[in-house]
Specification:
The structure is a single chain. The chain is mainly beta. The protein has four domains: 33-248, Jelly Rolls (Sandwich), CATH 2.60.120.260; 275-390, Immunoglobulin-like (Sandwich); 403-557, Jelly Rolls (Sandwich); 568-646, Immunoglobulin-like, CATH 2.60.40.3080. 3% of the residues lie in helices and 38% in strands. Strands 2, 23, 26, 27, 28, 30, 32 and 33 form an eight-stranded mixed β-sheet that branches. Strands 1, 4, 5, 6, 8, 11 and 13 form a seven-stranded antiparallel β-sheet that branches. A hairpin with a 2-residue loop joins β26 (447-457) and β27. The longest helix has 6 residues, at 12-17. It is globular and about 90 Å long. The termini are far apart.
């Protein structure tokens, strides 16, 4: 039986349309991901993939995908071989925090087809661990239920027609060991709200000691355009309401917020950025002005009818890694929503004064619903949190890509470019830019790119940059590093408002970079340059025609108060030989205090021992061939960077 969950009726499209902001002169279409580098970190290892329970599960079977926060479905309930991703960033208005999404990307983030051309077939699956149903009879009223959604924040799925097969299916394993099709939903080419599905298993062929069920997605195997999400899976006996059993004793946090971005968990605690340098946060005037005036999340009433008591909400912020709690950003009692069953709960994070300590830190904003629930299975979904990093970089994104975007490939004229606007609270230096390149299955070569810093001129980036740096991004990227950090030869002094971004020649290739659909940037804070050199503001339109998304590039700052760069003339006094080298290298030039070697993504791979500090000969250990930076710290604290090639 299919039951539309009424809480979403009239919510889905209106909530999305509100996102359309002020008109932009340039609207950039986006594309689904043909690869998701971040997923590789969650791919089950060979020992985990071979995991299988030694004893069948006992009833009840329950999973609302609140854990893990992101990654493969838990092996306590599911076989670790299906490729589904549990997250709070893909499903739109799920029943509870977290949902399992089945799409065209494997657990390692690569597409099933290995090509960039559409190819339809079997995608991800969710296969339960064996469940013990032996000894049950049809009188035990055994039912399986779950909620499903076609499409995701990526956009609408393709329509199931002809050879374009896009569907979600449910199979059950009989006592004879055969997989039997119980249900299928064919895509109509539209994104749906979550709907409840309930099935009777009161048949002797299912009542055996190794019962399993499987959800199987079919769609485009080349990217993540055909996504299906699953939430709140329940298999239990004694469900007396049978095929109408779609309510549960549960109140839960969900994802996104009505009138805002409809996915991604708790909304952003910061006013402009998702992350920023701690010293820039501290320099904001008035204090705490970088914190948002309001934040929150949707929550869901899964109960039947009204409950006798309201629920209490409590929002706290805690400084990590310490346990310091500066204060509460939310706290009150609210009534249960009944129709629709989903509503938003908000608070005021800017009312909590964050201590302006100079050390890098993470602020964890937590929201807890107290619905007086006693079932340990449903209690975890009452809590949701979001972390804000205050370190040495600015970000408008949350670190995860849902789409890709590319610059226009011009055959003549100036190379096109993207540039973010950054508003400083105090003068600073730009040390580097982190980019999130996404290489497609057909794109095996390295990628040329030029990063630049521009001053502001008449409210837009100046025609000429004040600093540039050109490199070749390696393909594949270093393991475990979806961002690639490119360091300027000298930190670039900036003040007030500046722009930072990248450009690249097309070389006849589509060169993709990650786009985070769960966050966005303020109006007129992303600019694009065309081949005539003209700058204009940009907004993104994913599949579904809703403007949102944050290009995934992050400027890294130095804090000019703490770290100054040498002048260009001072830097030119230093050179390295031999260069390229296979090991030992000598620094030619004036005296320096110590030397450090950084790899292509800015990670420290060697530092001169204290006993050798300042010695001109650097006895480097074995380092893989590639491009490195030798960073020299001078006696007055200034920094000189020199490129080193290792063969």
């Amino acid at each position: 039986m299919t039951t539309p969950f009424r809480m979403w009726r009239g919510l889905l499209l209106p909530g999305l349309l509100i996102l359309a902001g002020a008109a932009s002169a340039q609207v950039v279409p986006t594309r689904p991901l043909s690869a998701d580098p971040a997923r590789a970190a969650y791919a089950p290892q060979p020992d985990a993939r071979a995991q299988r329970r030694t004893a069948a599960l006992e009833l009840p079977f329950f999973d609302d995908f609140t854990t893990p926060l992101e990654g493969a479905p838990g092996v306590e309930n599911w076989l670790p071989t299906g490729g589904a991703l549990v997250s709070n960033r893909l499903a739109i208005y799920p029943l509870t925090r977290g949902a399992a999404t089945l799409d065209g990307l494997r657990a390692n983030g690569q597409s099933y087809s290995g090509t960039v051309n559409a190819s339809y077939g079997i995608l991800d699956s969710l296969v339960s661990q064996p469940i013990n149903l032996a000894g049950l009879t049809p009188n035990d009223q055994l039912y399986l239920s779950f909620a499903w959604q076609a499409g995701s924040i990526i956009g609408v799925p393709n329509r199931n027609i002809g050879n374009t097969q896009v569907r979600l299916e449910l199979y059950a394993k009989t006592a004879a060991g055969a997989w039997e099709l119980l249900w299928q939903e064919l895509s109509t080419g539209r994104r749906t709200a979550f709907r409840q599905q309930v099935f009777s298993l009161n048949d002797a062929k299912y009542l055996h000691g190794s019962f399993q069920f499987m959800l199987l997605a079919t769609g485009n195997r080349a990217d993540n355009s055909d996504g299906w999400s699953v939430d709140y899976v329940v298999l239990d006996r004694g469900r007396t309401r049978g095929l109408t059993d779609t309510t549960f004793v549960d109140v839960a946090t969900s994802a996104g917020i009505r009138g805002g971005i409809p996915s991604g968990g708790l909304s952003n605690p910061l006013r402009r950025y998702t992350a920023m340098p701690v010293w820039q946060f501290n320099a904001a005037t008035p204090p705490n002005s970088e914190v948002a005036a309001r934040m929150g999340v949707n929550f869901t009433n899964l109960n039947a009818g009204n409950l006798p008591v309201p629920i209490s909400i409590a929002g706290t912020v805690r400084e990590l890694p310490t346990s310091l709690v500066p204060g509460n950003w939310a706290g009150r009692s609210i009534a249960f929503p009944v129709n629709p069953r989903q509503d938003s709960v908000t608070g005021h994070p800017d009312r909590v004064a964050i201590p302006r300590t100079p050390t890098a830190k993470t602020l964890r904003y937590t929201l807890v619903l107290d619905a007086q629930e006693t079932d340990p299975r449903t209690q975890p979904n009452d809590t949701i949190f979001r972390d804000v990093v205050l370190d040495n970089y600015y970000a408008y994104d949350d670190g995860s890509a849902e789409n890709i975007v590319q610059l226009v490939s011009y055959s003549t004229g100036i190379a096109s470019a993207f540039a973010y606007r950054i508003n400083l609270n105090q003068p600073d230096n730009v040390r580097a830019l982190r980019l999130y390149p996404v290489f497609t299955a057909s794109d095996r070569a390295s990628r040329p790119v030029t990063i630049s810093v521009w001053n502001e001129e008449n409210g837009r980036p100046a025609d000429m940059p004040v600093a540039t740096k050109s490199v070749s991004l390696p393909n594949p990227l270093p393991a475990g590093a979806p961002y690639f950090e490119i360091t300027f030869d000298q930190p670039v002094p900036v003040s007030g408002t500046f722009y930072v971004g990248y450009s690249q020649p097309s070389q006849g290739r589509d060169l993709h970079y990650g786009l985070d659909l769960n966050n966005t940037f303020p109006p007129a804070h992303l600019w694009r340059r065309d081949n005539t050199g003209a700058w204009d503001t940009v907004s993104f339109v994913p599949r579904g025609a809703v403007r949102r998304g944050a290009l995934m590039m992050r400027p890294v700052m130095t804090n000019s108060v703490l770290t100054a760069s040498a002048t260009a003339r001072q830097a030119e006094a230093y050179s390295l030989f031999p260069n390229p080298t296979r090991g030992t290298v000598t620094v030619a030039g004036p005296a320096f205090a110590r030397a450090t070697v950084l790899d292509a993504v800015g990670r420290r791979v060697w530092e001169q021992p204290a006993a050798q500090a300042g010695q001109a000969t650097l006895a480097l250990p074995y380092l893989p061939a590639g491009v490195y930076t030798v960073r020299l710290t001078l006696a007055d604290g200034r920094i000189v960077g020199r490129r080193l090639m290792i063969e």
